[in-house]
Design a protein that fits this description.
single chain, mainly beta, Jelly Rolls, 3 domains, 40 strands, 43% strand, disordered N terminus
């Protein structure tokens, strides 16, 4: 394969800083795709702790809910013990080999459509690109959200207050969930959120637009005019705030080539400025590199961008997928790579940081950026992973998570069928045939409440937790509610119902779990 590296003119170097994006190669086969919709594929826990915001209005969430516009986002609210599985799709509903599972966290978090995570904890997974579309191929932006309990609310706390203000029609303003000591400048309305969109065409065409109230991609696509009329595609979307002192933009540029067999390492031009000035600086710089297919990505000191490693690097490592776990802590952000590898970009590095399986990237609020190791075996057997693997065990969802097989966390089949349930849903009813299924809970300790009805003919209920029996009712008739304490490492319990030999027996039960 031929390889061509672009260079910079002295004039360009005098204007802005320039660095190479090592590890990312742009060629004709690459198809970086911005998702057109996100489907809420599964939910475990109290769905009232999750809601969707559309055009400044709050909507309840349910399985099958869709995010599909620039300003759509999913917000988690305290106590934030629920989990949701987000699947990223094309406009035609094609799966884009990308998912996010939201995990419990005591603080609010916001999942911006399409490729931005603000606070919270999550699992993020990519499959191999295989020369096909892969969602957020150019990167998933992760932003640190400080604790709202800290003295002196930061701008991000104030941001959360504005973002949820007025969304609840119940009369209780949602922003009361957050710190109330908002800075005076925020209360006076001097801060605005700026949304941006970067588009690119196959022949060096590019577009860039911002908006505070509408979808900037409409204008960015209009600006991006290819010579032969082939439509441009969106490359990056995101946002920043006008009052921010430090905003960084990376302009990744590759001039069009007549020889399509060449693969080009893009040159990335760095533009730094304040939140109220960065847009005009970006536009001026883009004018310097017209018809070079410049893609624009904006981030801040509290952000980093994760880019999935190329297929060839993944296969060389012996992996066929990427799975990372992100955590928002008081000290900063952590990323554990459970499978595969990612390149991490941040404002204070001229080159990406490659993070591979078994390594943890720490993005500290103090400014340090380090890579350490972590206990991968423990991470693979956590309740968060159990929930993900239970979601992936659903035979109707076609979600492949190889780490689940490695950790033996797929729910086993019975007579070729996966018998699984979630503890926030009706569990089962039947008769003489009985029932056995694995029930996924949200935690590994607490109390399980079993409500059952066996009517006139006795049936038997058993609960098995971590291989030991924690309940055996024997054959009993009637109805009752039982509370059973449990504690261990797992968040799963097996429920076994043995039906009476009488062919007229009937039973039903429901579990309530912490």
């Amino acid at each position: 394969m031929n390889r061509l590296t672009t260079t910079n003119t002295p004039h360009a170097l005098a204007l802005i800083g320039t660095f190479f994006l090592a590890g990312i190669i742009i060629g004709q086969a690459a198809r970086a795709t911005t998702p057109e919709q996100i489907n809420i594929d599964e939910i475990l826990g109290n769905s009232s702790e999750l809601f969707i915001r559309r055009s400044g209005r709050r909507e309840s969430i349910e399985i099958g809910s869709i995010l599909q516009r620039m300003r759509d986002d999913l917000i988690t609210s305290p106590p934030n013990n629920a989990r949701a599985l987000l699947r990223f799709l094309s406009a035609e509903g094609e799966d884009l080999n990308l998912f996010i599972q939201t995990n419990p966290h005591p603080e609010p978090a916001i999942y911006y459509f399409p490729c931005q995570v603000n606070g919270g904890n999550s699992h993020i997974g990519w499959g191999l690109a295989q020369n096909e579309s892969r969602g957020c191929e150019n990167g998933m932006q992760v932003t640190h959200r400080p604790s709202t309990q800290a003295q002196g609310a930061s701008w991000l706390t104030a941001q959360a207050s504005q973002e949820t203000d007025g969304l609840d029609d119940s009369g209780v303003p949602p922003h009361k969930q957050f710190a109330s000591d908002e800075p005076q400048w925020f209360a006076q309305g001097r801060v605005r959120q700026v949304f941006y969109c970067s588009t690119v065409g196959h022949d060096g065409a590019a577009g860039f637009a911002t908006s505070m109230s509408s979808d900037p991609c409409i204008k960015a696509l209009e600006e991006c005019q290819t010579v032969d009329g082939v439509p441009c595609e969106s490359a990056f979307m995101g946002s920043w705030w006008t009052h921010e002192e430090a905003v960084h933009a990376a302009l990744r540029c590759v001039a069009p080539l007549s020889n399509t067999d060449l693969v080009v390492e893009p040159v990335v031009h760095a533009v730094d400025g304040s939140g109220d000035a960065i847009a005009s600086q970006i536009e001026s710089t883009l004018a310097e590199f017209a018809r070079q297919g410049c893609q624009v990505q904006v981030y801040r000191p509290q952000d980093f961008v994760m880019v999935p490693a190329p297929d060839e690097d993944m296969l060389a490592l012996g992996d066929d997928s990427i799975l990372v776990q992100t955590r928002n802590t008081a000290e900063g952000l952590e990323v554990d790579v459970l499978e595969g590898a990612v390149n991490v970009y941040s404002t204070n590095r001229s080159e990406p940081q490659l993070v591979t399986q078994g390594q943890r990237y720490v993005h500290s609020t103090s400014g340090s950026r380090t890579v350490t190791s972590f206990d991968r075996e423990t991470a693979l057997t956590s309740v968060d992973m159990e929930v993900l693997c239970t979601f992936a065990s659903n035979q109707d969802k076609t979600l492949d998570v190889p780490a689940c097989a490695e950790a033996d966390l797929y729910v086993p089949t019975i007579d070729g069928q996966v018998q699984l349930a979630f503890c926030n849903r009706e569990q089962g009813s039947g008769g003489q045939e009985g029932d056995r299924r694995t029930v996924q809970m949200s935690t590994n300790q607490g109390e399980i409440t079993l409500e059952y009805e066996t009517f006139q003919i006795p049936d038997r209920f058993q609960l098995i937790y971590e291989g030991r029996q924690i309940l055996d009712t024997g054959f009993i008739s009637g109805s009752n509610e039982l509370t059973i304490p449990f504690s261990g490492r797992s968040g799963r319990v097996d429920v076994i119902v043995t039906g009476n030999q009488s062919d007229s027996t009937q039973w039903n039960y429901t579990l309530q779990c912490p």
